[in-house]
Sequence to fold (101 residues):
Amino acid sequence: MTTQLTSRKKLIIWLKQVKDIKKLKRYGFITYVSKTFRYVCLYVDAKNHHKLMNHLSQKSFIVKVKQSKIEELDLDFENQKNLMESLRVEAKDYNQTHEMR
Fold:
């Protein structure tokens, strides 16, 4: 038995009222809810996320719908680790040269 993962997109949806969160459960998987700022992070299928964004933005209880920019972030932590190591060495050299003065 093999399971196939579907690709998903993350939508951020601002609501007029917090009680409308229940209405969004049928559209996708809710991962985060901010009751103070009245927004929801919702994962939907990547195939039809544009249609769903248009559909949701027309709903009366929704203020705004945006696609998350999480895919655009560089999450290559090996590169970040090397960068931090080079910055550490550079800071150490800088501190040693300025202590001699």
Remarks:
- The chain has a mean pLDDT of 88.
- The longest helix spans residues 77-99.
- The CA atoms of residues 9 and 46 lie 5 Å apart.
